[in-house]
Amino acid sequence: MPDEGEKGSFKADIPPSVLEDALRSVERTAGEAPAPDTPGEPAPEGEAARLAALEAEVARLLAEGEQARAQAAEEHDRLLRAAADLDNYRKRAAREKDEVRQQAVAPIVKDLLPAVDNLERALAAAPADDAMAGGVRMVLKQVEEALGRHGVTARSALGLPFDPAFQEAIATTDAPGAAPGTVVAEHGRAWFLHGRLLRAALVAVAAGTQGAPPAGPGDDGAGPAA
Length: 226
Hints:
By secondary structure, this protein is an alpha+beta fold. It is about 50% helix and about 15% strand.
């Protein structure tokens, strides 16, 4: 009931336990509200610093990734060059092996060539009606075919200008009607093994100065008149 002894006043009887419960509730609510400067709520300056650190870390990772890509590209190029070198080595080794195999018969062929020369000389000296010449010619053909199966070929130099790269001059001779330096006789043809010279042709060359101009009409060689 309100106190009628003093006008305008109000008095209520509130138990102390109720007041204590209300006070504890206010204190609990105040304790749960975070303070503005607590560590759980970073200040604007701290947030900017954290963002700057993240950006720096991203930049570092991107730079490392770019460096790794550059190293990978360099390693890829190195491996490509190594593969190309290995392929070239294999091809070169195969060529060298094939060349060694091809040239392995050279000593045997060189030993046979004098016999071939003798067969050719026998045919050149045999009379046209010699019955044995046919047999010799057949044997010579068989030998040449056998040599050809191993890459051995012959080349005649008769009538050609003397070439020291493929011919060996063993004599010079007067040969009327032949230009000086022309091969007029052949004592052995040039032989090649897989395109490589195995033995030079043994030839006789027309005497005279090679390359001299032919004498004109009335030219007696005495030179111009004084």
